[in-house]
Amino acid sequence: MPLASRRQVLLGTAALAAVGIAAVTMGRKKPPPARPAGVPLGPFDATSTTEDVTEGVDLAGRTVLITGATSGLGLESMRVLAMRGAHVIGTGRTLDKAERACASVAGSTTPVALELTDFDSVMRCAATVQALDQPVDVLMCNAGVMALPQLEQVYGLEKQFVTNHLGHFLLVNLLLDRVQSAPQGRVVVVSSSALKWAAPEGIEWDNLSGERDYDARRAYGQSKLANVLFSLELARRLEGTAATCNALNPGPVLTNVGRHAPGWLVTLGNLLGPLFMKQPDQGAATQCYLAAHPFVAGVSGRYFQDCNPISVGGHTEDTAMAARLWDVSQEFTRDYRG
User: Fold this and answer.
1) Strand runs (DSSP E) across the chain, as ranges?
2) CA 196 distance to own-chain centroid
3) Which region among 6-15, 221-230, 249-258 has the lowest average model confidence (pLDDT)?
4) Which of 177, 192, 248, 327 is at a distance of 20 to 30 A from 140, taking alpha carbons?
5) What DSSP element (H or E) covers 77?
6) 8 A C-beta contact, residue 177 and residue 243
C-alpha cells in the first residue's frame, strides 16, 4: 500500500475510534473545566442555542462583520444577529456566495467578497467596510479550513496558517480603528480544541512553510493556537480602551469544516454525529454570546467554551509566544497594512 494511502487509512481508523469512544461515553459526567480566576460564569452552557444567548438583546444600530458567513457557524451567527437587529456584513470567498448567504436570512445584511488567502482581497474587503464610514461593533473571525490532506502553500506559507490566522490578522489590523470607534467594540476569534492536542509543541517557527514534515492535523492545530495567541496579544494591546477581544472553542459541531476528510468518514460522521455533536445553533452560541451579550462587555483576553470562560493552560497563555507571533505576522503582512 502506498505511504499516502496507508496514512489516510490510519488517520481514518483513528477518527473512527474517536467517533466510537465519543458515542459510547456520551452522557457520562465529565469533570468541570478549569476556570480563570476573577471571571464570572454566565447563565448559559453547552446546550444553549444562538437564540437563547441573544434573547432580549437589541442590536439595532450595531454593525457586525462575520467572516465565512456562507455556511455553518458563520451563517447561523449572521442569521441570529441580523434577527436581533444588527446590520451584518457577511463575507464569502466570492461575492456570489456572500450574496446568496445574505439573501437567505431576514434582516439588514451586506455581502462582501473576502478570500483570506489573498491579501489583496483582504485589503479590498477592508476598504469596502471603511467606505461605509461607520463603527464596527463586532468583528467575528469565523472563517477557516481544516486538515488539508496535502501540503498547500500561499506566499510560501502553509495554507491553514494563512487562512485561519494571517488573513484574519491582516483584516483586524486594517479595521481596528473602526472597532475602536464603536462604543464597545468586540473582536471574536473562533479557535478549536485542536490547539491543545494537535499542536503540543506550540508554533513551529522554523516550519511555517510546512515543508519539513507536513501533517494535516498538526498544521490545523498550529493555526488554531495562533488564533488564541493573536487574541491574547490583541487584548493586551487594547487594554485601557473600551474594545475587547476573546477567543473560543465552539466544540464538536455538525458543519462542513471536515469536508477534506475521506468520503466514508464524512458519511459516518453524518450518521453518528447527531449522537454527540452540536447542531450549528448550539455550536455558534458561544461566539454570538461573546458578540452580543452585555454580561461579557468588559471581559477581554479570555478563552471560552460552552458560553463560559475556561483555562486550558500551556501555550494558550504564553504571552511571550503571543508577542512573537504578532511580530512575525506583522512582518508577513507589512506590505499590505499601509
Assistant:
1) 63-66, 87-92, 109-113, 138-141, 153-154, 157-158, 186-190, 244-249, 303-305, 308-310
2) 15
3) 6-15
4) 327
5) helix 72-83
6) no
Contact between 113 and 134 (Cβ < 8 Å): no
**12 domain residue, yes or no:** no
Give the DSSP letter string of 209-252: TS-SS--HHHHHHHHHHHHHHHHHHHHHHTTTSS-EEEEEE--S
Q: Give residue 101's Cα distance to chain centre.
A: 18
305 contacts: CB under 8 Å, gap ≥ 6: 33, 193, 248, 249, 251, 286
C-alpha–C-alpha distance, residues 53 and 118, integer Å: 34
Give pTM, 2 decimals.
0.88
Q: What is the CATH number of the domain that holds 263?
A: 3.40.50.720
Which residue, chain included where needed, has cell 500561499?
154
Question: Quick check: is 214 catalytic?
Answer: yes
In eight-state DSSP terms, residue 173 is H
Calculate Rg over the CA atoms of the chain: 19
Contact between 67 and 227 (Cβ < 8 Å) = no
Measure the CA–CA gap between 315 and 322, rounded to whole angstroms: 9
**Domains held by the chain: number:** 1
Phi, psi of 131 (to 5 degrees): -65, -20
What is the rounded distance in angstroms from the CA atom of residue 318 to the CA atom of residue 326?
A: 13
Angle formed at CA 260 by CA 110 and CA 217, multiple of 5 degrees = 105
Q: Is residue 321 part of a domain?
A: yes
What are the pLDDT digits (tens) for 288-320? 999 999 999 999 999 999 999 999 999 999 999
The catalytic residue among 214, 220, 289, 303 is 214
Domain of 92?
54-332
State the cell numbers at 300: 477581554
With beta carbons less than 8 A apart as the criterion, state whether 80 and 71 touch: no
Q: Which residue has the cell 492545530?
A: 221
Residue 217 lies in a domain: yes
